[in-house]
């Protein structure tokens, strides 16, 4: 058992602006833990989490792989989330780095075929299209969940380029809910990115049917 | 904590700015040195992902001249070299300051050790 990262430094005040780890976070941690041996066997050196929020997942990944074994880099559009990512790393003795950016903007040119482990627990809740773009511009807590039509407005922007980012041995973990059409995402990723995807974990929690998808290059 | 390992992965992404846009030039950098555990396997594994010249030049901007212009052929077994690389990549932190695009001069701010790469809407490429 790998313990859930210590988040005792984050307060109610922080969680007014930064996504508090919830069932979607925890299913992702469970998936990473289930894959721990596989992940270690890849010897990942560059781990990138998009939308790292509290930094819980990135610190957990550091615990799985070893705190000095890789660069643990998180991006978030929300400044407070980027700060929380760094603080959570310090609290858990994983030196996480954070950038304020949308998706991977600013990294695109240099991380072509370089990312060994890519993780995204996106804003996946279906909302009106306008609600998602207002939330994106707000760069605050609403941006953590508002996902536009099918909940895929933000995720789709990342999916377009995952094949271009992953290193030859790279792997990508994505959280999705039923309404996002996980099976359809896998089909699309095979067609457009040449990546094989599968649902590696799913569970019902509250009103949501959560899935963790894993993508890798076809053999 | 912007370390040079992260800086080495950042390029300007202003719309239309796609040559001579890397590495970003540090300006008014407040540097802090924080020791961290040495891991040779990590350094050897990350080495192929680095843009060497950009790393050396950026380290020099921050006052560190310990890296050679070209990496030694035995880079993966040369401990003195790997120790210097460890220090430059992971122990030099830029806490405040900015990074400026050598091409379009766009300024990316670093605040409390976190670079802000967000652009205003009209500067964004490909949307
Ligand atoms: C569901 S939360 C997940 C947070 C954390 N990774 C976790 O699992 O608990 C989604 C996160 O993505 C961030 N986010 C939303 N849109 C983004 C974008 N365009 N680029 C980067 N991050 C984004 C939000 O600010 C939020 O922190
Ligand atoms: Zn530029």
UniProtKB/TrEMBL annotation, chain A:
Cellular localization per UniProt: Nucleus
InterPro entries xrefs: DNA_methylase_N6_adenine_CS, Euk-Arch_PrmC-MTase, SAM-dependent_MTases_sf, Small_mtfrase_dom
One Gene Ontology CC term in the entry: nucleus
Annotated GO MF terms: nucleic acid binding; protein methyltransferase activity; S-adenosylmethionine-dependent methyltransferase activity
Transferase among keywords: yes
GO biological process: methylation
Protein name stated in the entry: Methyltransferase small domain-containing protein
Automatic annotation (TrEMBL), chain B:
Organism of this sequence: Tulasnella calospora MUT 4182
Biological-process GO terms, alphabetical: rRNA (guanine-N7)-methylation; tRNA methylation
A Pfam family the protein falls into: Trm112p
Gene3D superfamilies, alphabetized: 2.20.25.10
Matching InterPro entries: Trm112 (IPR039127), Trm112-like (IPR005651)
Protein's name according to its UniProt entry: Trm112p-domain-containing protein
Family per similarity comment: Belongs to the TRM112 family.
UniProt lineage: Eukaryota, Fungi, Dikarya, Basidiomycota, Agaricomycotina
Record text on subunit structure and interactions: Interacts with TRM9.
GO molecular function: protein heterodimerization activity
């Amino acid at each position: 058992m790998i313990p859930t990262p210590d988040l005792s430094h984050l307060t109610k005040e922080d969680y007014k602006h930064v996504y508090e780890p919830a069932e979607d976070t925890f299913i992702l941690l469970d998936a990473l833990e289930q894959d721990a041996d596989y992940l270690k066997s890849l010897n990942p050196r560059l781990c990138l989490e998009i939308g790292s929020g509290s930094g819980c997942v990135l610190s957990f990944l550091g615990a799985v792989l070893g705190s000095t074994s890789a660069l643990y880099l998180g991006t978030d559009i929300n400044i407070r989330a980027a700060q929380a990512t760094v603080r959570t790393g310090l609290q858990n003795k994983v030196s996480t780095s954070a950038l304020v950016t949308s998706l991977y903007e600013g990294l695109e040119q240099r991380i072509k075929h370089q990312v060994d482990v890519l993780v995204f627990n996106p804003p996946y809740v279906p909302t009106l299209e306008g609600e998602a773009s207002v939330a994106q511009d707000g760069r605050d807590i609403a941006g953590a969940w508002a996902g536009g039509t099918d909940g895929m407005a933000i995720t789709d922007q990342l999916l377009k380029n995952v094949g271009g980012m992953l290193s030859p041995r790279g792997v990508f973990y994505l959280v999705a809910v039923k309404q996002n059409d996980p099976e359809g995402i896998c089909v699309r990723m095979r067609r457009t990115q040449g990546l094989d995807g599968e649902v590696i974990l799913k569970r019902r929690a509250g009103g949501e049917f959560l899935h963790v998808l894993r993508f890798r290059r076809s053999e | 904590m912007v370390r040079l390992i992260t800086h080495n992965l950042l390029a300007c992404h202003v719309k239309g700015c796609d040559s001579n846009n890397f590495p970003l030039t540090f300006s008014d950098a407040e540097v802090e040195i924080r020791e961290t555990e040495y891991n040779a396997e990590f350094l050897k594994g990350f080495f192929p992902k680095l843009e060497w010249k950009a790393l050396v030049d950026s380290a020099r901007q921050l006052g560190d001249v310990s890296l050679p212009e070209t990496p030694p052929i035995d880079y993966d077994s040369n401990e003195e070299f790997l120790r210097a690389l460890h220090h430059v990549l992971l122990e030099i932190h830029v806490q405040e300051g900015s990074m400026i695009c050598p091409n379009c001069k766009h300024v990316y701010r670093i605040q409390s050790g976190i670079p802000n790469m967000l652009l205003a809407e009209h500067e964004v490429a490909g949307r």
